[in-house]
Amino acid sequence: MASFNFFICLFALIALLSLSTSHAAPLAPRQIGNLTCNIDRIKIVAALASTKNALSGLTTAAANDPAASAAAAQATEGIDSADAGVATIAKALLTLQAAPAAARDQVGAGLTQAQTALNSINSTDPAVTAKLSSAQGSLTKAITAGQGVVDNCK
Ligand SMILES: *[C@@H]1O[C@H](CO)[C@@H](O)[C@H](O)[C@H]1NC(C)=O
Ligand SMILES: *[C@@H]1O[C@H](CO)[C@@H](O)[C@H](O)[C@H]1NC(C)=O
C-alpha cells in the first residue's frame, strides 16, 4: 500500500499547488490540472487501494470455488494494471511530462476488466458475496473518479 499513500500525497501536493494558480502557472504545465482534477486523482488512488483490499478478501473467501477464484484473479489483474497506469501518469506529472494517453487507456481498460470479472461471479456463499459487494462498491467509486479525471483533468 506504500505506493498508494505516495500517490495520494503527490496528488494532494499538486492540488495545493493548483490552488495558487497564479504562482503555479509559470512552473506547472497545463496537465497538472485544477483542484477538481486533483481531488478526482486522489479519489481514484484511494478507491483503487480499497478495491485491492476487498479483492484480497474475496480471493481468500473464494478459495474453494474455482470459477470465483479465477474471476477474482482476473479482477485483481485488472486493478493491478489500472494501478500501473495511474503510476505512469503520476510519474509523468512528477517530471513535468505530458501524461501518456496510453496510460489513461490502461487505467480505463483495467477498471473494465475488473468490473467484467466481478460481475461474472454468481456464488451464493455469503462470505464470498459479502467481499464481492465490497469490491464492487469500491470499484464503482474508482470508475466514477476515473470519469471525473477524464472530465476535469483537461
Ligand atoms: C456462473 O454460473 C455459470 C452457470 O452455472 C457457470 O458456468 C459460471 O462458471 C459461473 N461463474 C462464476 C464466476 O462462478
Ligand atoms: C477544472 O477543470 C474542469 C475542466 O476544464 C472544469 O470542468 C472544472 O469546473 C474545473 N474546476 C475548477 C474548480 O476550476
UniProtKB/TrEMBL annotation:
Signal peptide residue numbers: 1-24
Keywords, in A-Z order: Signal
Keyword Signal annotated: yes
Record-given protein name: Hydrophobic surface binding protein
Organism, scientific name: Rickenella mellea
